[in-house]
Write a structure and sequence with these properties.
heterodimer, A: mainly alpha, Arc Repressor Mutant, subunit A, two-stranded antiparallel sheet, 2 strands, B: mainly alpha
Chain lengths: ~220, ~180
């Protein structure tokens, strides 16, 4: 079942020689999942545990962007971020019965995604996307192409620097800066204290400054 | 002068500081510089967005997740999670490998018991008989009959007649080796 944008390409000889491209609305709900779309996260979790996989599809659809962004911030490239996102949801599915609702579903998913990233990153050094592969969706019509290129280059440098931070510093920086989690939430996710989280955040920023200072 | 801690500096950068660190900040150039540096790098990090993937990606991701979880049931909690085939199959395979290794690994053979042409052949032969002896040590005739392991009369003779010349030669060699060993 796919909820994302679907593109259908068909040959249309009766009109003109060429291709007819039909773009369907993004995130159009699948018929089997329609009944779950009105549910809140707790109800979706309960329905998933009851064996309604379409309920878990809705959970994935609701949180996939956030999970992907956490993973991307962590590894700095699309390929690994998509693999890690998939793995995070698979682990969430496996552990659904252990979700007690003490935290929100999104915080629980953050925890899983961060753990998946921490484990994966410890296994290998991940490559970061080059500017050619990451920023080609940006609109360069508003500002000059040169300025856009410089901005993309700098963004790639920052992403690369973030991806090279020590794991816990990186996790803290990503969750605090980009996902606006409180220090307490981050401490819960990482299994540390608020003081340690603030110290990690401080060192992450300090190291980031050093790393960026070495870049042109 | 005692400078601000890392936690206090973060509180200041995030705008959640108490009054006392602020008083120190008013008089300490070094801490003010640190706050400015932290705020600067934080601002730069904030400006970096995650590149938006192709619109098709989100559907593909959902599909990949669905395909992945379709192959496995929702895991139960506690010990029962270990009773799933994806867990049991590797354990069973590992157990089989261990048993196979235990059976096939050569055991120490006294030099005086080595027979036939090579020591290796003797070792393998000895192992084979040791395994068979272990297996049938407690086996009696009634047990074999009840297990349906009795061969028909004359079956061994027929099997020997079906051997090739080379196989018969090898069988002869093995039997002679065993006889020699039994006599010694």
């Amino acid at each position: 079942m796919t909820h994302g944008t679907a593109v259908r390409i068909a040959w249309a000889p009766a009109v003109t020689a060429g291709w007819t491209v039909t773009v369907v609305t993004p995130d159009a709900p699948d018929a089997t999942a329609t009944g779950c779309f009105g549910m809140d996260d707790a109800a979706l979790v309960a329905a998933s545990i009851d064996g309604r996989r379409e309920a878990f599809d809705v959970i994935v659809e609701r949180h996939r962007r956030t999970v992907y962004q956490v993973c991307y911030r962590f590894v700095g490239n699309h390929e690994d971020a998509s693999d890690l996102s998939q793995e995070s949801f698979v682990r969430a599915w496996r552990g659904l019965k252990t979700f007690k609702g003490h935290s929100t579903l999104s915080t629980w998913l953050y925890r899983i995604a961060v753990n998946v990233c921490l484990n994966r990153v410890s296994l290998k050094t991940l490559p970061t996307d080059s500017i050619e592969s990451t920023d080609h969706f940006e609109d360069t019509r508003v500002e000059g192409a040169q300025a856009a290129l410089l901005r993309a280059e700098r963004a790639a440098t920052v992403r690369k620097a973030i991806a090279s931070l020590p794991k816990k510093q990186r996790a803290t920086l990503v969750l605090r800066t980009y996902h606006d989690l409180s220090h307490q939430q981050i401490a819960d996710i990482l299994g540390s204290s608020v003081g340690a989280t603030k110290a990690n955040f401080f060192h992450a920023l300090a190291n980031l400054k050093k790393l960026l200072g070495r870049e042109p | 002068m005692t400078h601000l801690t890392s936690a206090e500096l973060i509180d200041i950068v995030e705008g959640t500081l108490d009054a006392s660190p602020q008083q120190h900040l008013d008089t300490c150039t070094e801490c003010r510089q640190q706050v400015a540096d932290l705020a600067g790098v934080l601002s730069e990090a904030l400006a970096v967005a995650v590149p938006e993937p192709s619109p098709l990606f989100w559907g593909q991701l959902s599909q990949r997740v669905r395909t992945a979880i379709d192959t496995e049931p929702l895991a139960a909690g506690g010990w029962s999670r270990w009773l799933r085939w994806p867990v049991l199959a590797p354990i069973a395979a590992l157990a089989l490998i261990v048993v196979a290794l235990a059976v096939s690994l050569p055991r120490e053979v006294p030099m005086e018991s080595a027979v036939a042409n090579s020591e290796a052949a003797a070792s393998t032969l000895d192992d084979g008989f040791a395994v068979v002896a272990d297996l049938v040590g407690d086996f009696d005739w009634e047990t074999a009959v009840s297990a349906g392991l009795i061969v028909a009369p004359g079956a061994a003779d027929r099997a020997v007649l079906e051997l090739t010349a080379l196989e018969q030669q090898e069988l002869t060699r093995l039997l002679q080796a065993e006889l020699t060993r039994a006599k010694s």
